[in-house]
Design the sequence.
């Protein structure tokens, strides 16, 4: 009973950490759309819409940026999947490492944007969109690997539909309702914050995402270090040693 309570508490903490990443995705999307010539690096549903309208030649939308971001997102998710191959389900050290690494790379993109503004160099803008797309794909795959439902940033539409369907249930799950609400609310708040930070400099916005990502990875690793399974193993070892000392056998 105690360990089940600890597991639920750990899962709630993991949910909060993943919501922080959702906020960061909103910031990245604001930067990529407003600074990188209308490219969406994190939410591929919106990016595919931009790509389709760009192919139709509507609104002066470009094709290269959304296409590159889409391919990079897929590649980042694939690389993350390979890195997590053989790892157990849930939050693991590999998940923490992937989130931290992607955060550091986003920070480096922020430095690059500060040194070479995308407005002065289209290749640098497309390169930044590609790297950000790969990082967001890796983070989305890592978030999915934790097993916490309804928190992948690209699942906003599904989360909104699911939120409506919860009212159909006679006994709705309040935890799922709050996760879905937090998911689409925080990505919007992130986009709002990113748009404000861009007024100062896009590099600051990406730097914030880098700090948040690394912080999430560190906090997730700390949760992993005191997970209920580890605590259960420690208690089992203590009981076994006590039995051995009293002659009770294993």
Sequence:
């Amino acid at each position: 009973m105690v360990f089940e309570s600890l597991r639920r508490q750990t899962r709630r903490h993991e949910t909060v950490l993943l919501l922080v990443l959702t906020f960061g995705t909103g910031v990245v999307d604001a930067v990529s759309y407003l600074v990188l010539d209308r490219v969406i690096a994190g939410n591929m549903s919106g990016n595919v819409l931009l790509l389709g309208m760009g192919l139709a030649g509507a609104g002066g939308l470009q094709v290269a940026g959304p296409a590159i971001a889409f391919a990079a997102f897929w590649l980042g998710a694939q690389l993350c999947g390979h890195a997590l191959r053989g790892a157990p389900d849930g939050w693991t050290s590999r998940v923490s490492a992937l989130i931290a690494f992607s955060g550091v790379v986003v920070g480096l993109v922020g430095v690059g944007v500060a040194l070479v503004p995308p407005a002065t160099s289209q290749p640098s803008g497309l390169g930044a969109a590609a790297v950000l797309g790969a990082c967001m794909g890796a983070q989305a795959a890592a978030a999915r690997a934790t097993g916490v439902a309804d928190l992948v940033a690209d699942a906003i539409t599904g989360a909104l539909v699911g939120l409506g369907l919860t009212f159909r249930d006679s006994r709705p799950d309040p935890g799922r309702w709050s996760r879905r609400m937090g998911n689409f609310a925080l990505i919007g708040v992130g986009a709002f914050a990113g748009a404000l930070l861009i007024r100062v400099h896009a590099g600051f916005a990406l730097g914030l995402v880098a700090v948040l990502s690394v912080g999430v990875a560190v906090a997730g690793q700390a949760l992993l270090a005191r997970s209920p399974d580890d605590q259960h193993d420690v208690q089992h070892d203590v009981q076994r040693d006590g039995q051995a000392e009293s002659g009770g056998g294993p």
Remarks:
- Residues 2-34 form the longest helix (33 residues).
